[in-house]
Specification:
The protein is an alpha/beta fold. Helices cover 34% and strands 30% of the residues. The chain is built from seven helices and ten strands. The strands form two sheets. The protein has a six-stranded mixed β-sheet with strand order 6-7-8-3-9-10, with helices on both faces. A four-stranded antiparallel β-sheet has the order 2-1-4-5, covered by helices on one side. β9 and β10 form a beta hairpin. The chain starts with a strand and ends with a strand.
């Protein structure tokens, strides 16, 4: 694992307007993540984990403090620069899959590559590789309504991984899955983390996800409550 940080967060504060006042979602967060980590932000609803994930993914900006992701200072990026960072270097996995129902599995996975400068033959190879990683090669012509929930989430993982991003952000990726599918999905992501050295950062309160994490950051009321490192 490369020892240089892929994420550096210092004194991060995020406030949202609420009525005539403000709600502090994040209150002075200090964190660093190295390339190749398999880590999670853990906490109940309202603890700040999704807010922090959104800032790391350049989907939001801090109220104060600093978030640096792969050398880019999030709060200083223009909308175009944020989009470029997400397009080129980040993968996102959501609990709701966010697949395009009228398009095939192939087309859903190919979509991120259409925003980049790959030829048709390069895209075909990359999509085939991604679907092989998640064990869905035989579903390449199917559409999401024809798939199970577990298969849809595997398509979402393939879409997130197809461009081999440096960082994948996963927000409650197993929330809509049963136990067996959850473990299959998590084993797939664990394998991709080890083989491709992709950094995975989860936001979760799911015990199944937590059991796979090698670094656990517990958030409470917008602050880091404690951390645990495991060797699994």
């Amino acid at each position: 694992m490369d020892n240089s940080p892929i994420i550096e967060i210092e004194k991060l504060v995020k406030k949202f307007p609420m009525g005539r006042g403000e709600f502090t979602a994040l209150n002075g967060i200090d964190l660093r993540f190295k390339q190749g980590e398999f880590a999670g932000l853990i906490g109940p609803s309202g603890s700040g984990k999704t807010t922090l994930l959104n800032i790391i993914g350049s989907l939001d900006v801090p109220s104060s403090g600093t978030a640096v992701v792969m050398g880019r200072t999030i709060e200083n990026l223009t909308a175009r620069e944020s989009a470029k960072l997400r397009k080129e270097s980040l993968g996102f996995i959501f609990q709701s899959y966010n697949l395009l129902a009228v398009h095939t599995v192939y087309e859903n996975v190919e979509f991120p590559l259409l925003l980049l400068n790959y030829t048709a033959s390069e895209r075909k190879k990359m999509v085939s590789d991604a679907l092989e990683w998640v064990g869905l090669t035989e579903k390449i012509k199917s559409k999401p309504p024809q798939l199970s929930g577990g298969e849809c989430q595997r398509v979402a993982i393939a879409r997130a991984m197809v461009k081999r991003p440096s960082l994948v952000l996963a927000d409650e990726p197993t929330a809509n899955l049963d136990t067996a599918n959850s473990h299959n999905i998590l084993k797939t992501m664990e394998t991709l983390n080890r083989e491709l050295k992709t950094t995975f950062l989860f936001a979760t309160h799911d015990d199944k996800v937590i059991s796979y994490l090698r670094r656990k950051i517990f958030l409470l009321d917008g602050k880091v409550d404690k951390e645990e490192i495991t060797s699994n």
